[in-house]
Amino acid sequence: MGAFQEQIQRLSSLSMGSKILAFVVISLLIDAGFYLTRIKPAQGELEQMSREIRNKGRKNNTLEKQGFDKKLKTASLKIEEIERELAKREETLPKEERIEELISDLEKLAAVSNLQVGAYTRLAKTVFTGGGTKKKKRKSKQKFGLVPVQMNVEGTTENLLKFFLLLGNPDGMKRLVSISDLQISWANPSLGQRGDSVFENCGLTDQEQNLVDDERLRLSHKELVAKLEGLLTQVCIERQGQIKAQFTVNAFQQLSKEELRRLKTKR
Known about the structure:
The protein has 267 residues and is α+β, with helices and mostly antiparallel strands. The chain contains eleven helices and five strands.
């Protein structure tokens, strides 16, 4: 996790304005599709490995009939290797909900991030439909289960940033997740040793302001800019201390045909 530690060190050295910007960017990237860079290859690898196991299983039956013991042993070892790798991949996109395991992983990441968790609330499972191309929209769209858990946490802005970074990092959170319904409030501001210096690191630098004003950013990430501007309108002193946040962690799950049918009938 060397690269991740470097990210945290860089984060710690940012001004308050930069931390606020990074916080909004990271949370919205996870919410808006950052995880898709992992979900598509993960799903493809799972399907490919399953095909390999089936194909090699059929080949083994042929070898067994022909009496090629040595080749059979080599092929069997290859199947075992693929099955072990498949088990690892299914940690990323499991076939079961694994809700207890999910909450346990979230508790560990919260502890590493020094976030205090007030409560976990299990919400109703939903279906996520992946985007497809216009030409092959029906064929390319994939459906996954979303197992949502609502969290209420307290900590600093940096603590919450670290938690979101861990959620989006395969070394931190093996399972694919997204974040939704994010709500934040600031409380118990810390003035530091000199109350008159609290405003010095509060605003954005010229470079940061230019980023916020960037026309491409505004066109492609309207929600991001709106949330950022909303945060910057708050009284500066309120952004210096502890924060309270509520959000939903949506864990991805492979769905069987029967599960898809059941979930559709509930709508």
